Structures are given as structure tokens and as C-alpha cells.
Amino acid sequence: MSDRVFRVEWVPGSDRLAGRCHCGARTEAEDPVVLWEWLLAHPDHPSGGSGAPPRPPMRLVPVPA
């Protein structure tokens, strides 16, 4: 069994997910893909800190007329 555990949990009352790396780094994101990319980038994220993943580009959705 590996000691490298990643945790992803829903933040109650929000649309956000909280992620924790096995090194102790924590962050939150709305997009699960962004969160997992941040987790899997270990060790290229802040160790033991709360570094935020980069925000994805804003997507424009056309509004029907």
C-alpha cells in the first residue's frame, strides 16, 4: 500500500472542491480537472501551504435571444 494519498472533498454549501496532497499542501477549486491537475503536479505545488491552482479561462456562453 502506498503512503501517497490524495483527498478531494466537497466543500458543503458551495460548488467548490477541497484537495489535499500527501505532502500536506491544500487548495480549493470549482473545476475538478483543475484540482486534480494541481494534485498530480506534486512536487510542483506549494508544499504544506495553501497555494491556489490557476483559474481556468472564462468560458462565454451565448444567451438565446
Automatic annotation (TrEMBL):
Residues 53-65 have a biased composition (Pro residues). Residues 45-65 are annotated as: Disordered. It comes from the Bacteria. The lineage of its organism: Bacteria, Bacillati, Actinomycetota, Actinomycetes, Cryptosporangiales. This is Uncharacterized protein.
